[in-house]
UniProtKB/TrEMBL annotation:
Keyword Signal: yes
InterPro entries (alphabetical): Peptide/Ni-bd, SBP_5, SBP_5_dom
Name used for this protein in its record: ABC transporter substrate-binding protein
CDD domains: PBP2_NikA_DppA_OppA_like_2 (cd08498)
Similarity comment: family membership: Belongs to the bacterial solute-binding protein 5 family.
Signal sequence extent: 1-25
Length: 531
C-alpha cells in the first residue's frame, strides 16, 4: 500500500469510526456532503435543511410523493370568503415533550417565522392577520385574495409556543449567529422522529417517535446522519456498506456505484435552478478593483457576462450530461409557457465589445461567492465560469466555502455581503410567483418580505407590479401570460444568468427502498430497509 493509499484508508476509517456502531436492520445510515448547522427550523431556507428537519417538525400542510398538497397538522381548510382562509387543526397531537398542539402554537409560529431573524419570512406575508378562533381553529385574514397562500407551508414547521418561551427561543436563530441558541441545538416537533443527539459537524441521531400521531409508511427505527464532505470518502462508505444512503453521488462516480453489487444511483430531473447573480444595488462593489462605481449597474456588463458563459461546455464537461440548460429562472416543468423562451447563444466576441462600450475594455476584477458542498459540482461550475470570464478580460477571485459559511455571509442576516455569486432555488410553491417574489422582487421595503432571497438587489418596479397581479389572478391562461410578461422584462434587464436544472443523484443501498421527490426533500419515514 502506498503512503497516499494508507492515508486515505486512515481518513475513511476515522470518519466511519465516529458514526458506525452496531445497529439493527431498521437503522439507516445517511451521509451528505453538507452539514446540519442548526435545528432551528427558521434559520435557513434551504432544501437539505428542510428535509432533515422535516423528520421532526411538521407544517399545517405537507406534500406527498407527487408533490400534491395534503393535510398535516391541519386536517382541513376552506375559504369562507376570498380574503379569509380557515384551518381546522388536528386534535390529539402532542409535541415530543408531551405539550399539546393547539392554535396558540400556530399563532406563535406565524409571528416567529416573520421575525427579522427568520430566513423564512416569505412563507407568510407581514400583512396577513393570524387569528385564533378556538383551540383548534385558526383564521388567516388577507388584505387581498391569494389562491396559493398555503402552497409553501409544507416547510413552514410549527413550533411549541410554551417550549420556546421556557427556553428563551422566542426569536429565531439567525443563520449568521456565531453562538448557538437553545433552538439551534434542540428540537421539539410533532413529527415521526425525535432527535436523540445532535453534534454539528459530526453526527445527528434520529429515533422513531413512539407517540407519533400519524402512520409511518416505512420501517425505520433510527436514522444516523453524518456529514462527509469528501466525495471519495462518501462513495467509499456507500460501496463498503458502512452507510446506506449518500447525497450527492459525484457525477464521475455514478457509473462505478451503478456497477457495484450492493448499491445503485437514483437519478431523476430536479426542479432546482442553478443561477448566477450580481450586486446591482451598491454604488461601489464590495469586492472589486473598480472604485467609485458598480459595473453591474450597467446592463451591458450583465449582458456581457451572460454571453461569455458557455452553458453547453458546463453541461458536457462539468455536469457530464446530467443537467438541462435553462433560459429561465424556473424549471420548465413548473411553467407552461417556458417553451416560448430560448437561451441567448454564446458570444465571447460580442461580450468583449459590450464591456468596451461600458467603459471596461480591459475588464475588471471581482470576487465570486460560491458554495462548495451544496449543489452537484458547485465549485467546479464556479471554476468553469472563472475560466470563461477570463477570456473576456474579467478576473474572478473565487471564494468557494462550505454552505454554512457561504449562507451566513450572503443572506439577509449577513447583510447580503456579495458582489457576484452562484445560488440554487427550488420554488417552495412549485410556482413562478415564488421565484418572482423571493428571488427577483425589489428588496428595498423594510415592511415587506419581498426579495428576501434577492442577494444582488435586482429591482424593477414594473416587474413587481406584475408579480402582485400574478398572486391574485385565478384564470390560468391570463396568469401564465402575466408570468411570461414578467420574465420578458427580467430578460431584457439581463437580471440574472440562469444556468441549468441539475439531476438528482442519490446513492442508495440495494437493501433500501427510498422514494425520490423532484424537490429533493426526501423523507426517510417513507423508506424501508431489508435484512
Amino acid at each position: 500500500m502506498s503512503v497516499r493509499q494508507g492515508l486515505f484508508a486512515m481518513t475513511l476509517a476515522s470518519v466511519l469510526a465516529l458514526v458506525i456502531s452496531p445497529a439493527s436492520s431498521q437503522t439507516l445510515r445517511y451521509a451528505n456532503q453538507g452539514d446540519l448547522k442548526s435545528l432551528d427550523p427558521y434559520s435557513l431556507n434551504e432544501s437539505t435543511t428542510h428535509a432533515h428537519l422535516g423528520h421532526v417538525y411538521q407544517g399545517l400542510t405537507a406534500r406527498d410523493k407527487d408533490l400534491k398538497i395534503i393535510p398535516a397538522l391541519a386536517e382541513s381548510w376552506e375559504t369562507p370568503e376570498p380574503t379569509r382562509w380557515r384551518f381546522h387543526l388536528r386534535k390529539g397531537v402532542k409535541f415530543h415533550n408531551g405539550d399539546p398542539f393547539t392554535a396558540d402554537d400556530v399563532v406563535f409560529s406565524a409571528d416567529r417565522v416573520r421575525n427579522k431573524n427568520s430566513n423564512m419570512q416569505t412563507r407568510l406575508a407581514p400583512n396577513v392577520k393570524v387569528v385564533k378562533v378556538d383551540d383548534y381553529t385558526v383564521d388567516f385574514i388577507l388584505p387581498s385574495p391569494n389562491p396559493i397562500l398555503h402552497s409553501a407551508w409544507d416547510v413552514w414547521y410549527i413550533m411549541d409556543k410554551k417550549w420556546a418561551e421556557e427556553n428563551k427561543a422566542v426569536e429565531p436563530t439567525p443563520v449568521s449567529a456565531t453562538s448557538p441558541s437553545y433552538a439551534s441545538l434542540h428540537e421539539n416537533g410533532t413529527g415521526p422522529f425525535i432527535i436523540e443527539s445532535h453534534q454539528p459537524g459530526v453526527k445527528t441521531v434520529f429515533k422513531a417517535n413512539p407517540n407519533y400521531w400519524g402512520k409511518m409508511e416505512g420501517n425505520l427505527k433510527e436514522i444516523i446522519f453524518t456529514p462527509i464532505a469528501s466525495d471519495a470518502t462518501r462513495v467509499a462508505a456507500l460501496l463498503s456498506g458502512e452507510v446506506d444512503v449518500i447525497e450527492p453521488v459525484p457525477i464521475q462516480d455514478i457509473s462505478r456505484v451503478d456497477s457495484s453489487s450492493n448499491a445503485q444511483v437514483l437519478k431523476a430531473p430536479e426542479l432546482r435552478t442553478i443561477f448566477i447573480g450580481f450586486d446591482q444595488t451598491r454604488d461601489e462593489l464590495l469586492y472589486s478593483n473598480i472604485k467609485g462605481k458598480n459595473p453591474f449597474k450597467d446592463v451591458r456588463v450583465r449582458e456581457a457576462f451572460y454571453k461569455a458563459i458557455d452553458i453547453e461546455l458546463i453541461k458536457t464537461r462539468v455536469m457530464r450530461g446530467l443537467s438541462t440548460p435553462s433560459a429561465l429562472m424556473i424549471a420548465p416543468e413548473l411553467f407552461a409557457l417556458s417553451k416560448d423562451f430560448t437561451r441567448p447563444k454564446l458570444d465571447p466576441d460580442g461580450a468583449k465589445k459590450l464591456l468596451t462600450e461600458a467603459g471596461y475594455p480591459d475588464g475588471f476584477e471581482v470576487t465570486m461567492d460560491c458554495p462548495n458542498d451544496r449543489y452537484v459540482n458547485d465549485a467546479a461550475i464556479c471554476q468553469a465560469v472563472v475560466g470563461m470570464l477570463a477570456r473576456i478580460g474579467v478576473k474572478i477571485n473565487l471564494l468557494a466555502q462550505p454552505k454554512a459559511q457561504y449562507f451566513a455571509k450572503v443572506l439577509k442576516q449577513g447583510g447580503y455581503q456579495t458582489s457576484f455569486y452562484m445560488l440554487g432555488w427550488t420554488p417552495s410553491t412549485m410556482d413562478s410567483h415564488n421565484v418572482m417574489y423571493d428571488i427577483m422582487g425589489c428588496r428595498n421595503d423594510p415592511k415587506s418580505s419581498r426579495g428576501e432571497a434577492n442577494l444582488g438587489g435586482y429591482c424593477n418596479k414594473e416587474f413587481d407590479a406584475i408579480t402582485d397581479k400574478v398572486l391574485v389572478e385565478t384564470d390560468t391562461a391570463k396568469r401564465n401570460q402575466l408570468i411570461k410578461q414578467a420574465y420578458e422584462i427580467s430578460i431584457k434587464d439581463w437580471a440574472y444568468i440562469p444556468l441549468h436544472q441539475q439531476a438528482l443523484a442519490w446513492g442508495v443501498s440495494k437493501k433500501v427502498n427510498l422514494p425520490q421527490r423532484a424537490d429533493n426533500l426526501v423523507m426517510f419515514h417513507w423508506a424501508t430497509k431489508q435484512e
